[in-house]
């Protein structure tokens, strides 16, 4: 890749963000904010698809595909695991982007369950 100003700026910002997130409290706060945003996103998705009944099947199919792909990315063999002699061994912490996506997924699923319970009562 060429070393353009934009590329240099992006690399510098990602390195700076990576150093900033090394603090465990900052990492935890970003993950909690992502969890709460997932809960809000679930409420927004449920209300917007509830207004138009013809989008229910497409929205549920899209959400299942997104949730399953994030689960595969988080718990699969790509990040954080190495297979040694038939056993999976955890190497270290997952990257912050994968942790944020997983937290967003958990908040989304929790929010959709809450919305389902609200509709059922």
UniProtKB/TrEMBL annotation:
<dbReference type="InterPro" id="IPR007572">
    <property type="entry name" value="Uncharacterised_Ycf20"/>
</dbReference>
<dbReference type="Pfam" id="PF04483">
    <property type="entry name" value="DUF565"/>
</dbReference>
<keyword id="KW-0472">Membrane</keyword>
<protein>
    <recommendedName>
        <fullName>DUF565 domain-containing protein</fullName>
    </recommendedName>
</protein>
<feature type="transmembrane region" description="Helical">
    <location>
        <begin position="25"/>
        <end position="45"/>
    </location>
</feature>
<keyword id="KW-0812">Transmembrane</keyword>
<feature type="transmembrane region" description="Helical">
    <location>
        <begin position="57"/>
        <end position="75"/>
    </location>
</feature>
<comment type="similarity">
    <text>Belongs to the ycf20 family.</text>
</comment>
<keyword id="KW-1133">Transmembrane helix</keyword>
